[in-house]
Design goal:
Blueprint: H1 8-13, H2 15-20, E1 40-44, E2 82-85, E3 112-113, E4 117-119, E5 123-128, E6 134-140, E7 151-157, E8 169-171, H3 178-190, E9 194-198, H4 201-204, H5 223-236, E10 243-253, H6 255-266, E11 271-277, E12 301-306, H7 314-326, E13 331-336, H8 347-356
Parallel strand pairs: 7-9, 7-10, 10-11, 11-12, 12-13
Antiparallel strand pairs: 1-13, 2-5, 3-4, 4-8, 5-6, 6-9
Helix pairs in contact: 3-8
Length: about 350
């Protein structure tokens, strides 16, 4: 079943906390998706627009079930400290009930896509972070046989207050551009990326530690750091199927966008490229942002923003872009002039194009 967004009272009660993490609670009936307008503009260090077009191919043979799994998992295997479950709803089950199909000459997909709704099936695995703490990761691997090194990995980090479970189903009328978020996920799966969407604290109903004191400056103390280390270990143990831990990418919105930047700041050398929607440098929060000098080890980074965003102003994103340019890091900023704090319409193709355009060195 699709988990409902937080109730209005819960959102109002979280408004102050949400403000600290660079996001806000939606008002009832609000649709914060990208609005049709003059279209996005793109700037880069070379003052040219990078191409976001790419062809996606996928083997139709379907994922194989791991002998060690206790559910119809698409390639994942059980290990100590990780438990995988599959929902009964056909929109949230694994490979055995995938709703994707090859129609009208299109490549097969695990996901279903209409002009108003995108739904992708997922697996859910509880990762043991400590003796007392387990946290969930929702995930899926592409159709077909994995490459010899395993599937490349794309992390998608949720924004505040909206569980990452919602990443797997997006309606065009939903808030914060959720349709384009799920369409981004679908594009990545169809192109051969395994997608992992970890839950923030409290089953995803809060936010990431990346810009919350004291963790913003002492990341080694952060519970989310322990969670990331546990996820990396689970990848190496094959919990999510045959994945390539040497080829990892990350994207996310708002609090999840700052968390995406955290992958560069605190895990140097692990990530191949990043795509950040409606956020800036890892420790920043909303309008409060100071970007230090960066170095060339920072992964290539695509920045996406809405010009009408009152939560994470463009004026806090541009300094991050400028610091990357000075450091000689490949970067691009795409701005949707009509959008607010939301996944923009250009995101699905732009994120995929950015990742495909930046293979491992």
């Amino acid at each position: 079943m699709r988990r409902a967004p937080p109730s209005t009272p819960a959102l109002l009660g979280s408004a102050l906390v949400g403000a600290l993490c660079g996001c806000r609670a939606p008002t009832p009936g609000e649709s914060a998706g990208a609005t049709e307008g003059s279209g996005p503009t793109s700037t880069s260090g070379a003052d040219s627009s990078a191409s976001a077009s790419a062809s996606a191919t996928s083997d139709a043979s379907g994922g194989s079930e791991s002998a060690g799994a206790t559910t119809a998992a698409s390639g994942g295997s059980e290990s100590a400290g990780a438990t995988t479950t599959t929902g009964a709803d056909p929109t949230t089950t694994g490979a055995a009930t995938s709703t994707g199909a090859e129609t009208d000459g299109e490549a097969p997909s695990r996901c279903t896509e209409t002009p108003t709704l995108v739904v992708c099936p997922k697996e859910t695995t509880a990762i043991e972070v400590s003796a007392l703490v387990s946290r969930e990761v929702h995930w899926q691997v592409p159709l077909g046989e994995a490459p010899p090194a395993g599937w490349p990995i794309a992390f998608m980090f949720q924004g505040s207050l909206f569980t990452s479970e919602l990443t797997w189903e997006g309606e065009i009328s939903g808030g914060f551009g959720e349709y384009y978020q799920t369409l981004t996920l679908k594009r990545l799966l169809d192109a051969g990326f395994a997608v992992l969407t970890p839950e923030a604290h409290a089953d995803g109903n809060t936010f990431w530690d990346t810009n919350i004191p004291p963790y913003s400056t002492s990341w080694e103390l952060a519970p989310d750091h322990a969670f990331m280390l546990a996820i990396f270990a689970a990848i190496d143990d094959g919990v999510f199927g045959p994945l390539d831990s040497d080829t990892m990418y990350a994207t996310g919105i708002s609090s999840g966008g700052y968390m995406t930047s955290r992958m560069a700041v605190s895990y140097p050398g692990r990530f191949t490229a990043l795509a950040i929607q409606s956020a800036s440098y890892a420790p920043c929060s909303g309008p409060f942002c100071v970007v230090p000098p960066l170095d060339a080890s920072h992964p290539p980074t695509l920045l996406l923003a809405g010009a009408q965003d009152p939560i994470v102003p463009l004026s806090t994103i541009e300094p991050y872009r400028d610091a990357l340019v000075v450091a000689g890091v490949d970067t691009e900023l795409i701005v949707d002039e009509a959008a607010g704090h939301a996944w923009i319409k250009a995101a699905p193709d732009a994120v995929l194009g950015w990742f495909l355009g930046h293979p491992p060195a």
